[in-house]
Amino acid sequence: MNPTETTKDTGPRISIVVPVFNEEGNVELLCARTVAAMESFGVPWEMIVVDDGSRDRTLRHLTAAAAQEPRIRVISLRRNCGQTAAMAAGIDHAQGEVIVPMDGDLQNDPGDIRRLVEKLDEGYDVVSGWRRDRKDAAIRRNFVSRVANRLISWISGVRLHDYGCSLKAYRRDVLQHVRLYGEMHRFIPIYASWYGSRVTELEVAHHPRVSGNSKYGLERIFKVLLDLMMVQFLARYQTKPLYVFGFMALTMFAGAFVAGTVALVLKLFWSISFILTPLPLLVVMFFVTGVICMLMGILAEMLMRVYFESQGKAIYDIAELVNFSDREPRV
Asked: Torsion angle, CA of 71/3/313/311, rounded to 10 degrees?
């Protein structure tokens, strides 16, 4: 179904998910602008605002906005769980066929939602916003962000200019395979692409922050890079972890062999005693580390099998079946 079409069903077609934390100066205007933008769009919608344990009057303002507009729904978390967790809570409670995450600091423009959704109509599954003209600090935010985006694109193979932009549009079925942890909400287009979804990007507006303070610091870069490493590991080795640990084990065994060989050569041809070099210690260290890596790989392989078999999960993902309606898969 075309996501911009309306039907007799009164349920929302678009779910806008907005995590907020201590944004009392922005949420009222955010709700008003979003309502105005969606009213002009003319598509059934809902706005799910997730209060991520705010300690100011954010929740009070959200409750007042929801009382005036029933299509604004509020989820209040007991404590500050982070943007990814808050976004996951909103996505889990969303009912729309299209899900549009957005920041709550008014730097994203709700008017761009229509453009993102209409881009989906062209046959895409994910449309990622690109803040080409960012209104942030030139070095601390913009430069660092450009470097991070190029690194993520190079490692993942999914070429996007702006992974950090929260404003994106997803078809609901794209998100059914994704479980979000850490700072991984920004990597959803990578997951989607690996599952065969069509991903594109669209330039969106970006406004200066007028109220409140940014919640992002330079330490976020390191968190993102660590999460990216985990994403790569899960993508390549989730069903074969022994390959990773086995490679490390073989590398350690090779190091032990080389160190032992050199020690023997020094002893036989130059009469240099074993105790005069660190090579015997290296042999033992490399060998023990190799054994540990091999055992960890076997343990990870067993855990992976338990994970899939205990939950009835398959190691493959079927997009479509033809002439199999009367046949059940064999277990």
From this structure: 10
Report d(CA 104, CA 29) in Å as an integer: 10
Which residues, other chains included, contact 222 with Cβ-Cβ below 8 Å and sequence gap of 6+?
none
CA–CA separation, 42 vs 174, rounded Å?
24
Among 158-167, 186-195, 251-260, the least confident range:
186-195
Estimate to the nearest angstrom the gap between the alpha carbon of 265 and the chain centroid. 52
Give Cβ neighbours of residue 77 (< 8 Å, ≥ 6 apart): 50, 51, 52, 53, 85, 86, 89
Give pLDDT tens digits for 40-64. Answer: 999 999 999 999 999 999 999 999 9
What's the CATH superfamily of 14-236? Spore Coat Polysaccharide Biosynthesis Protein SpsA; Chain A (3.90.550.10)
Q: What is the mean pLDDT of the chain?
A: 85
Q: Report the distance separating Cα 124 and Cα 200, nearest Å.
A: 7
